[in-house]
TrEMBL record:
<protein>
    <submittedName>
        <fullName>Type I restriction endonuclease subunit R</fullName>
    </submittedName>
</protein>
<dbReference type="GO" id="GO:0009035">
    <property type="term" value="F:type I site-specific deoxyribonuclease activity"/>
</dbReference>
<dbReference type="InterPro" id="IPR007409">
    <property type="entry name" value="Restrct_endonuc_type1_HsdR_N"/>
</dbReference>
<keyword id="KW-0378">Hydrolase</keyword>
<keyword id="KW-0255">Endonuclease</keyword>
<dbReference type="GO" id="GO:0003677">
    <property type="term" value="F:DNA binding"/>
</dbReference>
<dbReference type="GO" id="GO:0009307">
    <property type="term" value="P:DNA restriction-modification system"/>
</dbReference>
<dbReference type="Pfam" id="PF04313">
    <property type="entry name" value="HSDR_N"/>
</dbReference>
<keyword id="KW-0540">Nuclease</keyword>
<feature type="domain" description="Restriction endonuclease type I HsdR N-terminal">
    <location>
        <begin position="63"/>
        <end position="127"/>
    </location>
</feature>
<dbReference type="GO" id="GO:0005524">
    <property type="term" value="F:ATP binding"/>
</dbReference>
Length: 387
């Protein structure tokens, strides 16, 4: 690969030095096009790999019309090349190139070149119909850093129709992604603002009103981030004018939406339950675990060691502890004025009612700390491994 890169770099210098002297199409072929084909493993002296003025009775094409070069692999044409003089503009490429391509299903790629610029086409839109836009443009007068990597895919040893179409798709996607990123950074529309806020884990409901309020902040953040990334290549970075920051009053009661799943919403009362759990069990390693169906408080970050689960989206919010409710627990709940449901859950009118069940919370902690309750033979372990 290093030798290939060296030869491509030498060819780029060659094009820059002699290109202006290639005033005719034939001179361009001899001085600029054939040398590149040789670097790509297609020797112009090997007719099993390169055939000039190739004609194969293409339908609808005059007998005098022939494609300038056909590159072969295993006896099959795989790439057509139409050549123009160095000074010619390629915007209006020859229509017969597409006719050649469309009439030859085995050909994966067609190219048009003036020696300094190469435009490669394939059939991503409609199979066997050459696309109107190139999937790759190689400009030897202004080459990209990865030009050798791109051209390596066209080397005789690697030339394969499926691989070339994969390359075409990669380049089309890359261009589209660049355009989308540039547009998003320039415009900072609400979809982009929502994405930034989600990734930043903003503790607010991401409705349109809130997104509009933080849009100026995102514009400012983008400007500062881009400026910081390019600062090392600038002698004196230009400080972009900062947009005035609107005052945002935090809403502590607003639900928090999981950025990876908008169906998981942690409510203020669920967060309050976690705070009360920490009050009842100070110093314990507790954490919140929310799902689409219930909220839970777990020990040591282990989802199967949940002290309790809470369902707050029902008409009667309820709580269920990991340890089955005993007779003593029933007495404690009834003495606290709590109502028990038939399924072993306890109705919870408000988060503060958890204080009245402090004894059961402590028993649940003891249960979770006992490893014997979580051995594989334990039914409780099998039941508790969900979620």
């Amino acid at each position: 690969m290093e030798e290939f890169k060296r030869r491509i770099a030498a060819h780029i210098d060659h094009v820059k030095k002699v290109g202006a002297h290639c005033v005719s199409e034939e001179t361009t072929k001899q001085a600029l096009i054939l040398p590149l084909l040789d670097i790509l493993g297609f020797s112009p002296y090997d007719p099993t790999r390169v055939q000039a003025e190739y004609g194969a009775d293409f339908p609808g094409v005059k007998a005098t019309e022939r494609v300038d070069y056909a590159l072969f692999s295993n006896g099959t044409p795989v790439l057509f090349i139409e050549a123009k003089a160095h000074s010619q503009n390629l915007n209006n490429h020859c229509p017969q190139l597409s006719r050649y391509y469309n009439a030859t299903p085995e050909v994966a790629v067609a190219a048009i070149t003036n020696g300094r610029e190469w435009r490669f086409f394939t059939d991503l839109v409609n199979r066997n119909i050459m696309d109107s836009a190139p999937f790759l443009i190689v400009d030897f007068e202004n080459p990209d850093d990865d030009v050798a990597e791109q051209l390596r895919r066209f080397h005789y040893d690697q030339l394969e129709a499926g691989a070339l179409r994969a390359l075409a798709e990669e380049n089309i996607y890359l261009t589209s992604f660049k355009d989308a990123i540039t547009s998003s950074l320039r415009d900072c529309d609400l979809d982009f603002v929502r994405y930034v806020a989600s990734r930043a884990n903003v503790q607010r409901q991401l409705n349109a009103r809130f997104l509009e309020s933080i849009q100026p902040l995102v514009v400012q953040a983008v400007a500062q981030s881009v400026s910081a990334m390019v600062a090392t290549s600038l002698s004196r970075p230009t400080k972009m004018e900062e947009a005035p920051a609107p005052e945002i009053v935090p809403d502590e009661d607003a639900p928090v939406i999981d950025p990876s799943n908008d169906k998981i919403v942690t409510t203020a009362e669920e967060r309050r339950l976690f705070e009360i759990s920490q009050d009842i069990l100070p110093g314990e390693n507790l954490s919140m675990r929310d799902t689409e169906t219930y909220f839970s408080v777990v020990l040591d970050g282990k989802s199967n060691r949940w002290l309790f689960r809470f369902w707050g989206d029902k008409r009667q919010p309820s709580i269920q502890f990991i340890e089955p409710i005993t007779e003593a627990h029933q007495v404690e709940a009834e003495r606290a004025g709590m109502e028990l449901a038939k399924n072993g859950q306890i109705l919870l009118g408000k988060p503060e009612d958890l204080y009245r069940l402090a004894g059961i919370v402590r028993d649940a902690l003891t249960y979770c700390k006992n490893n014997d309750n979580f051995r594989r033979t334990s039914k409780r372990s099998a039941d508790g491994d969900e979620g």
